[in-house]
């Protein structure tokens, strides 16, 4: 599934659509309530880890909040004639004095302070859609994805969009292979998001020092939101750490180096994506490491958790403690 840098790129694709009104809803999704998006306005767009959040709100609401709608239009609204025409008029005028970001900050402050009338804040009536992407999940702006190879039956069949949002301006957003859910808030935690400037190194370091294989901790989205299997394999190689090394037994300098690589690799990957460039892997999917050593491949994961493939070089990434020397095997 797309990792943090891909989802951040998707978010940047949707950002120019904020402020536009949905004119038509299409796509293969059978979720009936997605049709409700028609005539709603895209109010905000945020990425957090592997999730994309889009906020939608009634166009009328922005007027009420902005404070000074023209009396004539208010008359129309009061009579219940909330139409797309009104929406367009509203959009042209100074709809809102608060930017979407300010809405978010205001809402957050009010939530934190438990102000009783917080429900009057504009953002509180927004509906959020959470998008979680599958393996080939993606977003396109103003274009559809085309088949780049034939399927098993030899047909060149274009991918079917899950959701298509057409906007008033004849522009559109297309969503592929994703799960879509309504939610009340975007659940953004920048402190654990590897691509956020607010990523909390201290918190991440404490997580890495847990007495468990380092490759389990790296994929734990509570601490490393947006970090996926490609990033995991690549940064472990770059930091010369074996995937099964125990976090609690690794030198602090090694863990610091791993964190540096996590942030740097993810940021570089995002920049490459934005420049339309691919990524050159050092170890992921490789048979030889860059130094020519044979690469090992095995599936690792917590007993009751998700297991993922790891690639590593036993020579460049020595295990800590050495194999057969870990506390579990000593017991036997
Ligand atoms: Zn090697």
TrEMBL record:
Under the heading SMART domains, the entry gives: Fapy_DNA_glyco, H2TH
Keyword check for Cytoplasm:
no
Q: Which GO BP terms sit in this record?
A: base-excision repair
**Enzyme class, first EC level, given as a word:** lyase
Give start-end positions of Basic and acidic residues composition bias. Answer: 99-111
User: Which PANTHER family does the UniProt record give?
Assistant: ENDONUCLEASE 8-LIKE 2, FORMAMIDOPYRIMIDINE-DNA GLYCOSYLASE
Assembly and oligomerization: Binds EP300.
Q: What does this protein do?
A: Involved in base excision repair of DNA damaged by oxidation or by mutagenic agents. Has DNA glycosylase activity towards 5-hydroxyuracil and other oxidized derivatives of cytosine with a preference for mismatched double-stranded DNA (DNA bubbles). Has low or no DNA glycosylase activity towards thymine glycol, 2-hydroxyadenine, hypoxanthine and 8-oxoguanine. Has AP (apurinic/apyrimidinic) lyase activity and introduces nicks in the DNA strand. Cleaves the DNA backbone by beta-delta elimination to generate a single-strand break at the site of the removed base with both 3'- and 5'-phosphates.
This chain belongs to the protein called Endonuclease 8-like 2
Recorded source organism is Chelydra serpentina (Snapping turtle)
